[in-house]
């Protein structure tokens, strides 16, 4: 078993142990980071939806108020505007589902499901809650959700949601007068909910993990080649040259040149000792032959 083979065997064993430890420690960290990134994206969507709601109430609705007397435009409703706009986000967010889940909505599509209703009731019972997030099981696998309270903070919203008498007749004609009324200022009426399949976070973590581990392997291969070149030049070649010289000397051939003494390291000192031994042996043999 040669020196190079033993060195590479030890190097490979160290790398395998280090790679395994890195994989074990990094995957959990990368998965947590991927989940945090998904949560941050979802929170950004919620903030974007709030901005769209504010823009719709303060700038869009006043401009089309006169038109609402003839035809009700759902685009003037903050919840509708936010939901439709976020549905147009680029492919990066196609797995993200946004909903303004409301206990008593005007539009039936905004009605809270059982688990969404639990979130709304939690926000209603604790006014200090800003966000809720967690993982729930769905028929398609685990899903991560992030929710924020939907509070009536603008008096203009009560025009359509206080009583049927105040609401635009065109809205009553479209949605009826049974739902979406009785709301009060500063009341929590629903929750902004973003749902994301956990597979998105897992896929992001897996991509980062594969990239990380591939980078480690590339670094190892580079180090492997560099260390082998250094080992060959600094240790293996000088020792191999001395081994061949020793074989020749052992047969009585002293015509080979002396070992080139390079450097002051251990190999250099070994070369000095080897040459001194060679000269001593040559002199001893000459004395015997006399």
Care to describe what's here?
The protein has 290 residues and is an alpha+beta fold. Helix 1 packs antiparallel against helix 2. It is rod-shaped and about 135 Å long. The chain contains seven helices and four strands, in the order H-H-E-H-E-E-H-H-E-H-H. The chain has helices at 3-60, 78-86, 114-125, 158-161, 169-175, 198-250, 266-289, and strands at 97-102, 132-138, 141-151, 188-197.
Query: Helix fraction?
Result: 55-70%
Distance between the termini: 42 Å
What is the CA-based Rg, rounded? 38 Å
Order of helices and strands: HHEHEEHHEHH
User: How many beta-strand elements?
Assistant: 4
Q: What's the overall geometry?
A: rod-shaped
Bin the strand percentage: 5-15%
Number of domains: 2
Mean pLDDT figure = 84
Features:
290 residues; alpha+beta; 2 domains; four-stranded antiparallel β-sheet
Please specify the SSE layout and strand pairing:
Elements: H1 3-60, H2 78-86, E1 97-102, H3 114-125, E2 132-138, E3 141-151, H4 158-161, H5 169-175, E4 188-197, H6 198-250, H7 266-289
Antiparallel strand pairs: 1-4, 2-3, 3-4
Task: Briefly characterize the structure.
By secondary structure, the protein is of the alpha+beta class. It is 58% helix and 12% strand. It has helices at residues 3-60, 78-86, 114-125, 158-161, 169-175, 198-250, 266-289, and strands at 97-102, 132-138, 141-151, 188-197.
């Amino acid at each position: 078993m040669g020196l190079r083979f033993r060195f590479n065997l030890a190097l490979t064993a160290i790398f395998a142990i280090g790679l395994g430890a890195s994989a074990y420690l990094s995957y959990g960290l990368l998965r947590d980071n991927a989940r945090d990134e998904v949560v941050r994206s979802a929170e950004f969507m919620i903030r974007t939806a709030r901005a769209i709601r504010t823009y719709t109430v303060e700038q869009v609705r006043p401009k089309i108020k006169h038109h609402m007397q003839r035809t009700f435009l759902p685009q003037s409703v903050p919840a509708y505007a936010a939901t439709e706009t976020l549905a147009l986000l680029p492919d990066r967010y196609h797995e993200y589902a946004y909903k303004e889940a409301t206990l008593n909505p005007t539009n039936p599509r905004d009605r809270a499901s059982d688990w969404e209703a639990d979130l709304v009731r939690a926000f209603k019972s604790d006014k200090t809650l800003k966000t809720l997030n967690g993982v729930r099981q769905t028929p398609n696998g685990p899903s991560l959700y992030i929710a924020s309270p939907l509070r009536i903070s603008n008096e203009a919203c009560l025009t359509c949601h206080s009583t049927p008498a105040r609401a635009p007749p065109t809205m009553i004609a479209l949605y009826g007068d049974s739902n979406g009324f009785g709301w009060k200022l500063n009341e929590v009426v629903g929750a902004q909910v973003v749902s994301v399949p956990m597979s998105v976070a897992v896929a992001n973590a897996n991509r980062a993990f594969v990239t990380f581990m591939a980078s480690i392997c590339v670094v190892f291969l580079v180090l492997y080649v560099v260390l082998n070149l250094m080992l060959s030049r600094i240790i293996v070649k000088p020792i191999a040259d001395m081994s061949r010289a020793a074989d020749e000397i052992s047969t009585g051939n002293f015509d080979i040149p002396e070992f080139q003494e390079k450097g002051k390291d251990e190999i250099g000192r070994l070369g000095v000792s080897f040459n001194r031994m060679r000269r001593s042996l040559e002199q001893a043999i000459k004395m015997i032959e006399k």
